[in-house]
Amino acid sequence: MTTARSHEAPAAMIDRVASLLQVFDGGHRFTLAEVSRRAGLPRSSAHRILGRLVDLGWIERRGFEYALGIRMFELGSQVVRRDGVHQAALPHMHALHRSTGLTVHLSALQSGDVLHLERIGGWPEKGEGWRLGARQPAVHSAAGRALLAQLDDADWPDLTYPAPATPGGVRTETDLRREIDRVRDHDGVAVDAEGCSAGVIAVAAAIGPAEDGLSAALSLCGPAAAVPVDRAVAAVRRAATDIWYAAAGVTRLRGRPTRPVHAALPLAEALTAVARG
Hints:
The chain is of the alpha+beta class. It has helices spanning 2-21, 32-39, 43-56, 70-81, 84-100, 142-148, 173-185, 229-247, 267-275; strands spanning 30-31, 59-62, 65-68, 103-110, 113-120, 135-137, 189-193, 200-206, 216-223, 251-253, 256-258. 43% of the residues lie in helices and 20% in strands. The longest helix is centred in the first third of the chain and has 20 residues, at 2-21. Keywords: DNA-binding, Transcription, Transcription regulation. Residues 11-70 form the HTH iclR-type domain.
């Protein structure tokens, strides 16, 4: 009995810490009372755990409010930046932002959501779903639909269908399958015209084929009244392909991919190895 309890206590504490940290999903600041309520923890327990996390730098305290600390940022950055696709994407994302003036996201499929791993550009200034580190339901996101379109339907993660923000959003599996068909008909490029957010058009393409083990997508978003959709589609498709080649150590010559002479692996295997770090 004593042994069983000794194993349960650390697990229970880890669960409490995890529930507390998940309160801060979204980058907001919260008071002790808000953290306690959102985490479902007694106020005394929340206060004790927060105090220790502040000492470790995982949480920061300003006045009576708490937020994620710099140490959490450092750890998260290390996870993202070890990814070869992320490293390969950055220069292309900056170039795409300069050439289009639109905001560029690098996103990954995480269960039924897309997680924004990188963002270049400042618009939209509002809208929690578009910030760096935010999640959006995959069914509502152009990036999510571009990634789902690569998969057989049987391989889709468990998807949810929360109420869309606009009348044009995806509401049912039937709506989603219709959108996925459109993506597949347009060479893997997904276009979301104010379905995810009012006033926003997003265009996305997956980076590399699904069999390469990648689950990242590149997207452009901008004001609905100002985005030249055809140009955005072409730009995203080209940049996603360039990132795919770059992640595998491949260069382009006169519009055709060529593998460096020192690369011994086939392209798919090389890209998978790079992506897995």
